[in-house]
Amino acid sequence: MADIDGIKETKNYFTDVPASHDGFHLKGAHQLDWGMRNRLSKIFRPSTGRTVMLAIDHGYFLGPTTGLERIDLTIVPLLQYADALMCTRGILRSSIPSTFANGVVMRSSGGPSTLKELSNELVAVDIDDALRMNVSAMAVQVYIGGEFETQSVKNMTTLVDMGLRYGVPTMGVTAVGKELTRDARYLGLATRICAELGAQVVKTYYCAEGFERVTAGCPVPIVMAGGKKLPELDALTMAYNAVSQGAAGVDMGRNIFQSDAPAAMIQAVGKVVHELMPPSRAFDFYKTVKREQELAAAKK
Ligand code: R5P
To answer: Whose CA is nearest to atom 1 of ligand 1?
Structure first.
């Protein structure tokens, strides 16, 4: 028989405190299911609503690009500074320690290499495998204006449907071909289409004019892609401008792993994203950490 002796009768229902309505830390996500919000919270820090996502998925169409030749040596040491990692399932299984406890955004589309028409992608991962690897989101390239625009949108909606069945968010990645202009009009169009068709997160490039209109017009969080390698101060300035203009963080690759000091750079990006540290101060921080690392290496 269950022990019911000594059960306390005094209870406190805090009747004077209204129940929390759970204002979630991400826009457009407050009506999603628990599992999906829990996964989003592994990507976006609840304390700031932003993320430093490290993008290392380039190999899915580029092969061993500069900085990603040896993930085990160059990327694994950076994981401690990343809120989330964006990578393929091949790299996740082969090279990322399963002790990594932050968010994983899995590249879930693919097909063509740089030798072919890049927009001709298909869905490249089954939801079963996404769940097996406990990923926090699936990422899919969307080529608005590209040759295979409709096919890439269909890839996204397929993943959105699969993800909604199991509480896995989908991140639409707006791909910009050489022939397309990265202006606010185009990025606003592409990001809004991703959100309208169900993506819970959208990744896009920064544009100097009107980026605040791009983020405002997208009802779900936008993360900024880094793009080609820039001088560190320029990359930090771009990240600062993006988050100041409404981005929920960055999903940055080359500007971190191709930096002269990747560990210093990702920490400096973290200062900008989570503390809104002005770029000049973040650059000083970068130089200080870089110097400390050089001195520590010299002592070995
Ligand atoms: C590109 O298609 C990949 O999705 C990359 O993750 C993306 O371009 C971000 O990396 P980066 O900052 O190097 O542009």
So the answer is: 58
